[in-house]
Amino acid sequence: xxxxxxxSYGHRAEKxxxxxxxxxxxxxxxxxxxxxxxxxxxxxxVRLFLAPKWPSALRAEQQRQGSYxxxxxxxxxxxxxxxxxxxxxxxxxxxxxxxxxxFFVLSGYLITNLLLQEYQQQGRIDFGRFYLRRFLRLxxxxxxxxxxxxxxxxxxxxxxxxRQALGEIPWAVSYLANWARAWDLIPMFYLVHxxxxxxxxxxxxxxxxxxxxxxxxxxxxxxxxxxxxxxxxSWAWRIVLxxxxxxxxxxxxxxxxxxxALMWGCALSAWIRHGLAWRNMRWLGLLSVxxxxxxxxxxxxxxxLSQSLYLGAGTGAAWLTAILILxxxxxxxxxxxxxxxxxxxxxLGVLSYGVYLWHYTVYMFxxxxxxxxxxxxxxxxxxxxxxAFISWRWVERPCLQLKAKxxxxxxxxxxxxx
Length: 418
Known about the structure:
Strand content: under 5%
Shape: globular
Strand order of the largest sheet: 1-2
Structural class: mainly alpha
Order of helices and strands: HEEHHHHHHHHHHHHHHHH
């Protein structure tokens, strides 16, 4: 049996190499170890200039192993790009904040998928390992950014402005910035964007416990049902508060009023795990093209202060994102996958956490120093990208290597940024 398995692996490896050579993507020798071709010793010579040029054999092998879906990082790259354009006040992206809703849906999908895999394969969820992985993924980069901000603020500011700037840091690192904004507990200027990180962290704290209960009760089907109920409840509660005249800060920043986007992603993952499927993939591909175009239209037309956003437009954006995720992750005939697998967009997705952390603080600090917005959009964005790369290379990546030691028991990940 072992010999047959080794021969089968060697045969698949040879087919893979042959396909790559046919596409002229291997520029150095690739060789096999041992007589029975058990292991590929090196694939460093594979050159992937653009993801659309990846051979179908490579994509099939990745999907077979479930190791990585680069298009989801591309989707994350689009989301952070919309947010950056919104914060840079770049016309016409006045509704670029929908990128945050895209992040929420994607996070709900990825986390639920990992947790359900762990439960289905091990019959349990290791909460300690889960929370440690989340800590290693999120906290080091946040601490690096806030520490750098504190040093620069102490150098450039003094008196009351300095006190107010430093006073934002505890709310950011404790993941309570969303409630500080929702209830107007403290004025936040430089770190106000950490409200979305707070919502995600609160979701990470609560959802695994709830998911374990539903998984024990009835597996992915119960998880799907509860996720839908919670999504609808959050949406309904937001409608009630909106019609009752609640402040925009309350509607936009509360976990209870924004949880529906996360829950739609959770529901999508549970729906797939429950064995349900979209039967006509060709129509899904066409539907996803419409979803992408509508999302881009939303990014140009939606208004943060409009009631329509909280009554239904925000929920619509979450549904459109869910359609895109389903298409990119599960549709072999996706019309959009090549777009979202383009190398610059995937790279931006890999750096998206750092880009999100740094860009707003850099913009606001320059603005407070009297820098013109034209310069902020160019030099501020360049500085944010550089800082995001530094964060990824020397802070996030080493921590991700530690995180891998406590990685998913299934060995499957769907996004390098997750």
